[in-house]
Protein backbone atom coordinates (compact mmCIF):
# COMPACT_ATOMS: atom_id res chain seq x y z
CA UNK A 1 0.00 0.00 0.00
CA UNK A 2 1.31 3.43 -0.95
CA UNK A 3 2.13 5.97 1.69
CA UNK A 4 0.41 9.35 1.62
CA UNK A 5 3.59 10.95 0.28
CA UNK A 6 3.78 8.39 -2.55
CA UNK A 7 0.10 8.94 -3.36
CA UNK A 8 0.59 12.72 -3.37
CA UNK A 9 3.53 12.32 -5.76
CA UNK A 10 1.52 10.04 -8.06
CA UNK A 11 -1.41 12.49 -8.03
CA UNK A 12 0.91 15.38 -8.87
CA UNK A 13 2.46 13.50 -11.80
CA UNK A 14 -0.96 12.51 -13.10
CA UNK A 15 -2.42 16.01 -12.72
CA UNK A 16 0.41 17.56 -14.71
CA UNK A 17 0.64 14.67 -17.21
CA UNK A 18 4.35 14.29 -16.54
CA UNK A 19 4.63 10.60 -17.59
CA UNK A 20 2.98 11.40 -20.94
CA UNK A 21 5.24 14.41 -21.44
CA UNK A 22 8.36 12.37 -20.72
CA UNK A 23 7.15 9.56 -22.99
CA UNK A 24 6.49 11.98 -25.86
CA UNK A 25 9.84 13.70 -25.47
CA UNK A 26 11.62 10.34 -25.29
CA UNK A 27 9.83 9.20 -28.46
CA UNK A 28 10.96 12.35 -30.22
CA UNK A 29 14.55 11.69 -29.12
CA UNK A 30 14.45 8.17 -30.52
CA UNK A 31 12.80 9.31 -33.73
CA UNK A 32 15.08 12.27 -34.51
CA UNK A 33 18.27 11.10 -32.71
CA UNK A 34 19.72 14.62 -32.47
CA UNK A 35 23.46 15.15 -32.03
CA UNK A 36 22.78 17.35 -29.01
CA UNK A 37 19.87 15.74 -27.15
CA UNK A 38 19.71 18.25 -24.29
CA UNK A 39 19.51 21.20 -26.68
CA UNK A 40 16.90 19.31 -28.70
CA UNK A 41 14.77 18.74 -25.60
CA UNK A 42 15.01 22.40 -24.59
CA UNK A 43 14.01 23.39 -28.13
CA UNK A 44 11.03 21.01 -28.09
CA UNK A 45 9.85 22.37 -24.76
CA UNK A 46 10.16 25.92 -26.09
CA UNK A 47 8.16 24.96 -29.21
CA UNK A 48 5.51 23.35 -27.04
CA UNK A 49 5.31 26.42 -24.82
CA UNK A 50 4.94 28.68 -27.87
CA UNK A 51 2.20 26.42 -29.25
CA UNK A 52 0.40 26.62 -25.92
CA UNK A 53 0.65 30.40 -25.77
CA UNK A 54 -0.44 30.93 -29.37
CA UNK A 55 -3.18 28.31 -29.29
CA UNK A 56 -1.67 26.43 -32.20
CA UNK A 57 -1.26 22.70 -32.46
CA UNK A 58 1.66 21.20 -30.55
CA UNK A 59 4.41 19.56 -32.60
CA UNK A 60 3.86 15.89 -33.36
CA UNK A 61 6.02 13.13 -34.72
CA UNK A 62 3.44 12.43 -37.40
CA UNK A 63 2.06 14.72 -40.07
CA UNK A 64 -0.58 14.20 -42.77
CA UNK A 65 1.94 12.67 -45.18
CA UNK A 66 3.00 10.15 -42.54
CA UNK A 67 -0.62 9.19 -41.92
CA UNK A 68 -1.20 8.78 -45.67
CA UNK A 69 1.85 6.51 -45.84
CA UNK A 70 0.63 4.38 -42.93
CA UNK A 71 -2.76 3.98 -44.58
CA UNK A 72 -1.09 3.11 -47.89
CA UNK A 73 0.93 0.37 -46.23
CA UNK A 74 -2.26 -1.08 -44.78
CA UNK A 75 -4.11 -0.78 -48.09
CA UNK A 76 -1.60 -2.03 -50.69
CA UNK A 77 -4.39 -3.01 -53.12
CA UNK A 78 -5.73 0.58 -52.98
CA UNK A 79 -9.22 -0.53 -51.93
CA UNK A 80 -9.67 2.82 -50.15
CA UNK A 81 -10.43 1.15 -46.81
CA UNK A 82 -8.82 -0.93 -44.08
CA UNK A 83 -10.31 -3.27 -41.51
CA UNK A 84 -11.25 -2.24 -37.99
CA UNK A 85 -8.44 -4.43 -36.64
CA UNK A 86 -5.91 -2.71 -38.92
CA UNK A 87 -7.24 0.68 -37.84
CA UNK A 88 -6.84 -0.16 -34.15
CA UNK A 89 -3.39 -1.63 -34.63
CA UNK A 90 -2.19 1.38 -36.64
CA UNK A 91 -3.44 3.91 -34.10
CA UNK A 92 -1.85 1.91 -31.29
CA UNK A 93 1.46 1.88 -33.18
CA UNK A 94 1.18 5.68 -33.55
CA UNK A 95 1.05 5.88 -29.76
CA UNK A 96 -2.65 6.64 -29.48
CA UNK A 97 -4.05 4.91 -26.44
CA UNK A 98 -7.62 6.23 -26.30
CA UNK A 99 -8.87 4.88 -29.60
CA UNK A 100 -12.42 5.40 -30.84
CA UNK A 101 -13.58 1.78 -30.81
CA UNK A 102 -16.47 2.41 -33.17
CA UNK A 103 -15.42 4.88 -35.88
CA UNK A 104 -17.46 5.48 -39.02
CA UNK A 105 -17.42 2.26 -41.07
CA UNK A 106 -16.74 -0.04 -38.11
CA UNK A 107 -20.08 -1.81 -38.54
CA UNK A 108 -19.03 -2.85 -42.08
CA UNK A 109 -15.40 -3.49 -41.08
CA UNK A 110 -14.34 -0.86 -43.63
CA UNK A 111 -12.54 2.16 -42.27
CA UNK A 112 -12.02 4.73 -45.00
CA UNK A 113 -8.83 6.69 -45.52
CA UNK A 114 -10.61 9.87 -44.43
CA UNK A 115 -11.96 8.29 -41.24
CA UNK A 116 -8.56 6.81 -40.42
CA UNK A 117 -6.86 10.15 -40.93
CA UNK A 118 -9.47 12.07 -38.91
CA UNK A 119 -9.28 9.61 -36.02
CA UNK A 120 -5.47 9.59 -36.12
CA UNK A 121 -5.24 13.40 -36.13
CA UNK A 122 -7.71 13.66 -33.24
CA UNK A 123 -5.88 10.94 -31.31
CA UNK A 124 -2.54 12.66 -31.84
CA UNK A 125 -4.07 15.94 -30.66
CA UNK A 126 -5.25 14.23 -27.49
CA UNK A 127 -1.72 12.90 -27.01
CA UNK A 128 -0.38 16.42 -27.50
CA UNK A 129 -2.75 17.61 -24.80
CA UNK A 130 -0.08 16.39 -22.40
CA UNK A 131 1.61 19.70 -23.09
CA UNK A 132 -1.26 21.86 -21.92
CA UNK A 133 0.21 22.10 -18.44
CA UNK A 134 3.59 23.50 -19.52
Description:
The protein has 2 domains: 4-59, no CATH class; 64-130, Recoverin, domain 1 (Orthogonal Bundle), CATH 1.10.238. The chain is an all-alpha fold and 134 residues long. The mean pLDDT is 86. It has a two-stranded antiparallel sheet with strand order 1-2. It has helices spanning 4-15, 18-32, 37-54, 64-74, 84-93, 113-128; strands at residues 81-82, 111-112. Helix 4 (64-74) crosses helix 6. It starts with a helix and ends in a 6-residue tail after the last helix.
Question: Could you give a short description of this structure?
Answer:
Residues 66-124 form the EFCAB10 C-terminal EF-hand domain. InterPro entries: DD_EFCAB10 (IPR049760), EF_EFCAB10_C (IPR056587), EFC10 (IPR039879). The chain is mainly alpha-helical and 134 residues long.
Amino acid sequence: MATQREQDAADYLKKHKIPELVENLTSMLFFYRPEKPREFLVEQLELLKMAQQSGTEAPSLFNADNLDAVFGILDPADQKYITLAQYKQALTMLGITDINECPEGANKDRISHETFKTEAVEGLKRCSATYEQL
